[in-house]
Amino acid sequence: MEKLQLWLLVLAGLSGAVAQEDLHGQVFVFPKESADAHVILNMNNKGPLQTFTMCLKYFTDLTRPYSLFSYATRARDNEILLFKEKPGELSLSIGGESVIFKVPERTGTSAGWEHICASWESATGIAELWVNGSPLPRKGLRKGYAVSDQGVIILGQEQDSFGGGFDAKQSFVGEIADVYIWDHATLIVALQAANDDSQVPLSILGWGSLQYQTK
């Protein structure tokens, strides 16, 4: 069944109250370049993160840089950031430090929805990125660090300050769906659940019970 489009950001400047909904089969649509339109997500973690796995799906034809997932605190604007630098490159930032993954690009009629999963573990500093079910070479990032729980998650924009500092030329234009974050589930378990549409493990942020606010 074709996904029902949830046109949340069509009216520029329209702010909505915090909602909690099951968004299975629906998407956030970001219809045009903007310096202010975004979605705020609430994460139900109960302390700093020592490990996490984050997955989402997106669909865009942008070739310029854009943000896929931005989590900022008052101390660090890039506490967690998943950012498409350019075709063939995705960067993952933890605690203000970044690594770049080389990503094979889809071409021609194969272009479409991309499924991205990023995972990080403080004890080892190992960062992993999987694209459409295939792993990329692992990187080392921020060993021993703890991700603060005093932050804000934003889709559609890259935060250069806590909850703001947006640049239209880094905004996302396209569709985003199926956003999840786990603080305990392994990357393999998360991927298996996404690939075969099985029961998704209990998450601290989940598309099936998403708390969000449109701006």
TrEMBL record:
Needed co-factor(s): Ca(2+)
The record's listing under SUPFAM superfamilies reads: Concanavalin A-like lectins/glucanases
Tell me the protein's name.
Pentraxin family member
Q: Which residues form the signal peptide?
A: 1-19
Q: Which PROSITE patterns match?
A: PTX_1, PTX_2
Q: Which GO MF terms does the UniProt record name?
A: complement component C1q complex binding; metal ion binding
One of the GO biological process terms: acute-phase response
What family is this protein classified in? Belongs to the pentraxin family.
Complex and partners: Homopentamer. Pentaxin (or pentraxin) have a discoid arrangement of 5 non-covalently bound subunits.
Where do the Pentraxin (PTX) domain residues begin and end? 24-215
Provide the cofactor note recorded for this chain's UniProt entry: Binds 2 calcium ions per subunit.
Entry's localization field: Secreted
GO CC annotation terms, alphabetical: extracellular space
Superkingdom of origin organism: Eukaryota
Q: Which organism is it from?
A: Chelydra serpentina
Q: Which UniProt keywords apply?
A: Acute phase, Calcium, Disulfide bond, Metal-binding, Secreted, Signal
